[in-house]
Amino acid sequence: DHLEAYGAHLVQNFGSGVQSCYRGPRLYDADETRILVKDTVTWYKKYRAILDSDIIHVRRPDGRDIDCMLHVNPALKQRGMAMVYNPLSEPVKRRLRLPLYYTGLTGAAQILDREGASKAYALDRQFNVEVPVEIPARGYSWLMIE
Predict the structure, then answer these.
(1) Among 24, 67, 89, 100, which residue's Cβ finds the most Cβ atoms within 10 Å?
(2) How far is CA 141 from the centre of its chain?
């Protein structure tokens, strides 16, 4: 009955690097719920190394605008992963400033969105980049930094 809320909860936990232990009589009650759980766990396993890395809170969650956390690890090929959430009931378009100092990148960053589109960004003198983001209503997105 609450597939959207369940999916948001799973993405929030896995996107925060939380390795949860779900207990109860079942994880899913229908095929579409089983597919949601399987897809989310597969996504987490694919990006586990960066999702289990250190977190920088880019924008504090206040329920009035997007919130963002940035996973960083200079020892990986995927140096960072920004998880961006929209708690609002309407889609948003913003320019998001990502602090990439702890990724170990110095001159430029290759940033891929969840659709696979890639673009190079020059870092400013404080090792930041500004990227445009579009987040659906009550949705999320992520950006991979290499």
Answers:
(1) 100
(2) 6
Q: For 8-33, what is each residue's pLDDT tens digit? A: 888 888 988 887 777 777 777 888 98
pLDDT tens by residue, 51-87: 999 999 998 889 899 999 999 999 999 999 999 999 9
For residue 6, which of 43, 41, 33 has the smallest C-alpha distance? 33
- Judge contact between 80 and 71, C-beta under 8 A: yes
pTM of the model: 0.89
Q: Which of 74, 84, 90, 110 is nearest to 12 (CA)?
A: 84
Burial 65-91 (b: 16+ CB within 10 A, else e): ebbbbbbbbeebebbbbbbbbbbbeee
- The vertex-81 CA angle with 78 and 85, nearest 5°, equals 165
Our measurement of the distance from residue 37's CA atom to the centroid of its chain's CA atoms, rounded to an integer in Å, reads 17
- Give the separation between CA 104 and CA 108, rounded to whole angstroms: 11
Q: H or E segment at 35? A: helix 31-46
Chain-centroid distance, C-alpha 60:
14
